[in-house]
Specification:
heterodimer, A: 148 residues, mainly alpha, Sufe protein. Chain: A, two-stranded antiparallel ribbon, 6 helices, B: 287 residues, alpha/beta, Oxidized Rhodanese, domain 1, 2 domains, five-stranded parallel β-sheet, four-stranded parallel β-sheet, 11 helices, 9 strands, 11% strand
């Protein structure tokens, strides 16, 4: 894996120590419980299509907000009430990538989802979660190219 | 939504309401089974007393792309405490995609004493019915299963090729974009595991979701379903029909609709679906 933001690396290192599947699932459920949908100051319903994650059946949306010269804060909405994995992924991405250098965020690979959820995901679920990571990385890439 | 028995289904007893499930939570002859796409859903909370049957870990072989064999099915039934007399009731996310998938696999082993909860997890949650995190443990049973029978309700690629060459009807239950072969992914995003896009020649496009009421995931009435599959697409109850999607989960939902709700007599699910057909060499594809 190429260089990724330190907070994400630390999180994945921590997660790799959780061998027991039930414990890992419980950890991810608790992570999902910290999910907060995008603030109204950023966007309101109906959310724009341009912020919708392609291929995500949980109807996830991503926004970026510049917080420093080279850093972004990411915001998420998950419109499917049963989209618990999407909510967990949103929390992880926000807590580990918001405030990280955009150039590093742009390098986060989509297959990081397998380090989080394991390889038992369905293809559809994988597509959606990878799409969330990819959209965050794309937003960071465009931002850093614009700043470059 | 009207009562299940008033919707005109050919086999209304295969579908049970959330009320029915609520009334049978303590029934030792009933085993409630949750099957989801999202692996976090069941552990987060579920219908009290429900067990989980996971499509990857419990129903699929871990090396070869195939389902479990007789021994594996017997072990699964023993684990969830079911006998051949146990009424197994499936429910799950995605308006019962995975519940129908599990139901279909159970039929490969002849466990006909099986039902699906109308509306699945979505309806149960919307009705604010009880849920908890307790993972139940049931006494292990002795279960003797027949060998898996792939002939009647499962189609393999050679069957499908023969089917196509005979101009027999197929139903593609994927989204219109998947059916048309439009690219499903943005640049830099993964594609969906098939080298070619499009659909099997002659297949009717009927996205699976047309069979349900999106507000609560319940099935449409027989009249509404007949309007789609029979009047609009011209399928007949005695037709030899093959349904497919990407890996066979959505098409098992449509298989359930055609077989039990509309009473079609000869429907098979092609579980190889587009992830197989779209990668095969020298098979016909339409766009």
């Amino acid at each position: 894996m190429s260089e990724i933001p330190q907070k994400l690396k630390d999180y994945l290192d921590m997660l790799s120590l959780v061998d027991d599947r039930s414990e890992r699932i419980q950890l991810l459920i608790e992570t999902a419980e910290r999910f907060h949908s995008v603030d109204e100051s950023i966007s309101t319903r109906p959310f724009p299509e341009e912020n919708k994650v392609p291929g995500c059946e949980s109807q996830a949306y991503v926004w970026e907000e510049q917080i420093e010269d080279e850093k972004l804060k990411f915001h998420f909405a998950v419109e499917n009430p049963q989209g618990i994995s999407a909510k967990a992924m949103a929390v992880i991405l926000d807590e580990t990538l918001s405030g990280a250098p955009a150039k590093e965020v742009a390098e986060v690979p989509g297959d990081v989802i397998y380090e989080v959820f394991g390889k038992e995901l369905s293809m559809g679920k994988s597509m959606g979660l990878m799409g969330m990571v990819g959209m965050v990385a794309n937003k960071a890439r465009k931002f850093s190219e614009g700043n470059g | 939504m009207s009562k299940i028995e008033d919707r005109g289904y050919s086999n209304s007893d295969v579908l049970v309401s959330t009320d029915w499930v609520a009334d049978h939570l303590e029934d030792s002859n009933v085993r409630i089974v949750e099957s989801n796409e999202d692996p976090l859903l069941y552990p987060s909370q579920h219908i009290p007393g429900a067990v989980e049957v996971d499509w990857t870990r419990d129903l699929n072989q871990q090396v070869r792309r195939d389902y479990l064999e007789k021994d594996g099915f017997e072990a699964l039934m023993k684990k969830i405490g079911a006998t051949r007399d146990t009424t197994v009731v499936f429910y799950g996310d995605k308006s019962n995609w995975w519940a129908c998938y599990a139901f279909w696999i159970f039929q490969l082993f002849g466990h006909t004493n099986a039902k699906v909860m109308d509306g699945g997890r979505l309806k149960w949650e919307k009705e604010k019915r009880p849920m908890n995190k307790d993972v139940p443990s049931y006494n292990a049973t002795s279960y003797s299963a027949p060998n898996r029978d792939d002939k009647k309700i499962r189609a393999f690629r050679d069957d499908v090729l023969t089917h196509v060459n005979a101009s027999l009807p197929l139903v593609d239950v994927r989204s219109p974009e998947e059916y048309s072969g439009e690219r499903m992914h943005m640049p830099d995003y993964p594609n969906e595991g098939a080298l070619r896009g499009g659909h099997i020649p002659g297949a009717h496009s009927v996205p699976w979701g047309r069979a349900i009421n999106p507000d609560d995931g319940s099935f449409k009435t027989a009249g509404e379903l007949a309007e789609i599959y029979q009047k609009e697409k011209g399928l007949g109850k005695d037709d030899n029909v093959v349904a497919y999607c990407r890996i066979g989960e959505r098409s098992s939902h449509t298989w359930f609709v055609l077989t039990y709700l509309l009473g079609f007599s000869n429907v098979r699910n092609y579980d190889g679906s587009w992830t197989e057909w779209g990668n095969l060499v020298n098979v016909p594809i339409e766009k």
